[in-house]
Write a structure and sequence with these properties.
Elements: H1 3-16, H2 25-35, H3 52-65, H4 73-87, H5 91-104, H6 106-119, H7 125-128, E1 132-138, E2 141-147, H8 156-164, E3 197-201, E4 204-210, E5 220-224, H9 234-246, E6 251-253, E7 270-274, H10 279-282, E8 285-289, E9 298-302, E10 308-313, H11 316-331, E11 343-344, E12 347-348, E13 350-359, E14 362-371, H12 399-402, E15 405-408, H13 411-425, H14 439-448, H15 456-475, H16 482-494
Parallel strand pairs: 2-15
Antiparallel strand pairs: 1-2, 3-4, 4-5, 5-7, 6-7, 6-13, 8-9, 9-10, 10-14, 11-12, 13-14
Length: 495
């Protein structure tokens, strides 16, 4: 494919997928030529059925060959995002179309917007399909497991370039509204094809966008227009409930607001949502409970590995009021017998991960009790993956995982393959530094299974799911035992 054929194919792709109109063809060709330092264009026939990945690869190869772009994944991503930004509709046009679709239905609006995010290559669908996904059946329901491979790792050229770069605080973080259309740099992704949708939530200015890495269907991010810190309070509950009233087919939740149990970006208030039913949402209430003065609200403990209170009702103000009451009680709650301390040495430990949804015409709010205390044996957090499971995952358990979707490190793709081969062929697992950390776990697995070349990978995937379920149990502040239930109810009564 010549560079002219690639440009023509990209313009045809944009027209075919509704990014531009037929009248925009010549203009778009010229804009792309300018980005590629071409002073003229030779009209030609192009493959109208070529896939976006192939078209962009041809253009990027030309850019690299002609010194326009470094040959590394980070620099190539910066360059092709610039090209797609030329073809992506202006923010005003996207907002106008979203509003028109919303008049038909909230589903129509998000369907249009999600499709645009993929067609404009903001969501690189051809990378997402490489993610490894499976389901593990547990007593709590079907737990989703994913090894996410779509987020590119930094390459040596980008790391070296970042060291010599002038430090910049614009945008302040990857969630700020100033990312819309931003050119990016080696330590900050390009966002020329990024579009955001404004909205009001409980009187505050927010924006809707999709996650470029899509851990689940229509994985969206809802962020404050201002760069202000995450905080779980009455206002957060009001905003979550306001969002699901605007988009009743979506759930929305917030990471907690403390380190260890919180999200990766605590400096900017944001929520995550989407069009997906997680295992936790499907789990039922196993222990109903009535809060005095709130008899109009159904409540109870959810059958889930973590400690979850579910509230259900029709009045969002009453739900938010009760949730705030529970949060206030939990912030200051200590139960030494259950190893729950509100604070130690002046450091606060208790907070909540809240999730809102609509179900059968009622508003539903799940409150997941969190505590970030550390111990000598668990310096990364006691209610956190314990050291014996760090060979699978030692990162924070955030909102998405709380709900039953494991986001596991990309290293596991290779490690599963190497470990399966070692187990089948009787190799010394401890001698291979890639999998030595799995040796004890693998020994236990081999005691319980007859491992063959045909079933080794499936067995490892099943056992990884079991490990993740055990990790969620470790993150629950109350044990899944009768004693733990008594302790949990003791807290509910204290509210």
């Amino acid at each position: 494919m010549t560079i002219y054929e690639a440009i023509k194919a990209l313009v045809l792709y944009a027209e075919k997928n509704g990014l531009i109109e037929k009248e925009d063809e010549i203009f778009s060709v010229n804009q792309l030529c300018q980005a590629l330092a071409l002073e003229s264009f030779e009209d030609c026939e192009a493959d109208g059925g070529a896939g976006l990945e192939d078209i962009l690869a041809a253009i990027l190869d030309y850019a690299v060959k002609n010194g326009l772009c470094e040959d590394s994944v980070v620099f190539r991503d910066l360059f092709d995002t610039r090209l797609m930004g030329i073809l992506t509709p202006r923010p005003s046009a996207v907002i106008k179309r979203f509003s028109e679709e919303y008049e038909k239905s909230p589903e129509a609006a998000t369907e249009y917007y999600y499709d645009l995010a993929q067609k404009s290559d903001y969501i690189r669908a051809y990378r997402i399909k490489n993610d490894i996904k499976w389901i593990t059946k547990t007593e709590y329901g079907d737990i989703d497991i994913t090894i996410n491979l779509s987020k590119p790792e930094k390459d040596p050229k980008a790391i070296a370039a970042a060291l010599t770069m002038k430090q910049s605080s614009y945008p302040k973080c990857q969630l700020c509204k100033e990312n819309e259309g931003y050119m990016g740099r080696v330590n900050h992704p390009a966002r020329q094809n990024h579009r955001i949708i404004p909205m009001k939530l409980a009187g505050a200015d927010f924006f809707l966008q999709y996650s470029p890495y899509v851990y689940y269907n229509e994985h969206c991010i809802v962020f404050n227009s201002e760069h202000i810190p995450m905080v779980i309070n009455r206002g957060a509950f009001d905003k979550l409930l306001a969002f699901v009233k605007l988009f009743p087919h979506y759930f929305v939740g917030s990471n907690a607001d403390l380190p260890i149990v919180g999200g990766s970006i605590l400096t900017h208030e944001h929520f995550q949502g989407g069009h997906y039913d997680f295992a936790m949402a499907k789990a039922g209430v196993e222990t109903p409970f009535k809060f005095d003065g709130y008899e109009d609200i159904e409540a109870g403990i959810v059958k889930w590995p973590m400690s979850v209170i579910r509230l259900s009702g029709t009045d969002e103000n009453r739900l938010a009021e009760l949730a705030d009451k529970i949060l206030g009680a939990w912030r200051n709650y200590t139960d030494e017998e259950a190893f729950i301390y509100a604070e130690t040495d002046g450091e606060k430990h208790n907070t909540i991960t809240p999730i809102a949804r609509m179900r059968n015409g009622k508003l539903e709010l799940d409150l997941v009790l969190r505590n970030n205390i550390t111990t000598e044996e668990c310096p990364l957090g006691f209610y956190h993956p314990h050291p014996e499971y760090h060979h699978i995952k030692k990162e924070n358990i955030g909102l998405i995982e709380v709900m039953g979707l494991a986001v596991l490190p990309s290293r596991l793709k290779e490690e599963i393959a190497v470990l399966a081969d070692a187990m089948v062929n009787g190799k010394d697992i401890t001698a291979d530094e890639r999998i030595a950390k799995h040796a004890e776990w693998a020994d236990e697995i081999m005691k319980n299974y007859t491992v063959t070349a045909e079933n080794a990978t499936d067995i490892l995937k099943k056992e990884i799911g079991i490990v993740f379920t055990s990790i969620l149990e470790q993150c629950g502040v109350y044990d899944r035992t009768e004693t733990g239930k008594v302790q949990f109810i003791r807290f509910l009564e204290s509210v």
